[in-house]
Amino acid sequence: MSEHGSDGQRPRVAVVGGDGIGPEVVAEGLRVIAAADVELETEHYDLGGHRYLADGTVLPDSVLEEWRDFDAIYLGAVGAPGVPPGVIERGLLLKMRFELDLFVNRRPFKVTAPDDQGTTQSHDFVVIRENTEGTYAGEGGFLRKGTPHEIATQGSVNTRFGVERCIRYAYELAESRRNHLTLVHKTNVLTFSGDLWERSFHEVGATHPEVETAYNHVDAACIYFVQDPQRYDVIVTDNLFGDILTDLGGAVSGGIGLAASANLNPSYSGPSMFEPVHGSAPDIAGQNKANPIAAILSGALMLEFLGAPEPARRIEQACDACSDLEGSTSDLTDAVIAKL
Ligand code: ATP
């Protein structure tokens, strides 16, 4: 495993189009990457809700083993009507996240707002969400289930190792940007996990003295996301808060058709996974109506991570120039390619 460019090899990418609009938008993302003159070695995998409905397959261990030798996974969207809830989410997406140790979820946002002179300014910021622990680790259970005395517990798992590696990644990212990092938590109420996060944040921060830090409670951060997102550059937060905040971030920065995400293993000891935030949108599938920008931007994140920042930046700028356009899936992709 290596960063693209360091050994001159074409990056190996496993492509999972998935369901609904997934295959359409991923195909457009690959078209843009090719137009940006980046050569990938791709292998397509037929997985997703449709495959589960056809033969019960979700994510075989053999496929997971094959993927360990890839540099990246480029995923469209998975989920289809008729598949029971949780089957694909737990069996494919979460399994990938845990088995491939994709411990960083990185989501970039771009907002526009008028400045004091009334000129529209754009501002970009990034949320780094811990992706393998917290309340999503599956700790908990039922007692006396189905009786009037039933109890359900859902613990939040926060390991020093897991919290620290995520925070370390966030500091390094902040250093490569504007040297500003905000921790978002709820330390006043979640006094155990919040304490661990806060101590880790300051201890790792001691080795990054040039990074200015801030702290927001998650409820305050929700207000700032809407009213004053310009205060942020890089945000680091736990799994649950990150899940909610990033959806809010998507809503204040252009909507579901533009939101890209990366699930990263920053040690490069296995592939990282790149996907648009939106789902399979069965209501518009197969009609050339889906906005491909989120998938194209996810492709740009993939190129950046694979060590090709220059084409990644060109694709991003081309998407920015087209983010207000309307049109069919293929028209929008053509417009992005024309801007490259
Ligand atoms: P999931 O549970 O997989 O997230 P969902 O139905 O809750 O599925 P989406 O599939 O993201 O969420 O769809 C939500 C709405 O947004 C739908 O009306 C869909 O048509 C629309 N939508 C989602 N992605 C896009 C896109 N890329 N372009 C245009 N509309 C989209």
Question: Topology, please?
Answer:
Elements (H helix, E strand, L loop, with lengths): L11 E7 L3 H14 L5 E4 L4 H7 L5 H7 L4 E6 L9 H13 L4 E11 L5 E11 L9 E4 L7 E4 L5 H17 L3 E6 L7 H13 L6 E6 H10 L6 E4 L1 H14 L7 E5 L7 E5 L16 H13 L3 H14 L6 H11 L1
Parallel strand pairs: 1-2, 1-3, 3-12, 5-10, 8-9, 8-10
Antiparallel strand pairs: 4-5, 4-11, 6-7, 11-12
Adenosine-5'-triphosphate (ATP) binds next to loops.
Largest sheet: 10 strands, mixed
**Alpha plus pi helix count:** 11
Using only CA atoms, what is the Rg? Answer: 20 Å
Provide the residue-averaged pLDDT.
Answer: 95
Tell me the β content: 15-25%
Low-confidence stretches: 1-6
Bound molecules: adenosine-5'-triphosphate
User: Which strand order spans the largest sheet, edge to edge or round the barrel?
Assistant: 2-1-3-12-11-4-5-10-8-9
Structural class of the helix and strand makeup?
alpha/beta
Overall geometry comes to globular
CA(first)-CA(last) distance = 29 Å
Residue share in helix = 25-40%
Task: List SSEs in N-to-C order.
Answer: EHEHHEHEEEEHEHEHEHEEHHH
Would you count the extended β strands for me? 12
Would you give an account of this structure?
With 340 residues, this protein is an alpha/beta fold. The protein is 39% helix and 21% strand. It contains eleven helices and twelve strands. It has helices at 22-35, 49-55, 61-67, 87-99, 160-176, 193-205, 218-227, 239-252, 293-305, 309-322, 329-339, and strands at residues 12-18, 41-44, 72-77, 104-114, 120-130, 140-143, 151-154, 180-185, 212-217, 234-237, 260-264, 272-276. Strands 2-1-3-12-11-4-5-10-8-9 form a ten-stranded mixed β-sheet, with helices on both faces. A two-stranded antiparallel sheet has the order 6-7. β11 (260-264) and β12 form a beta hairpin. α7 packs parallel to α8 (239-252), α9 runs antiparallel to α10 (309-322) and α10 (309-322) crosses α11. The longest helix has 17 residues, at 160-176. The protein is globular and about 50 Å long. The structure holds adenosine-5'-triphosphate. Adenosine-5'-triphosphate binds at residues 21, 79, 256-257, 278-281, 283-284, 290-291, 294.
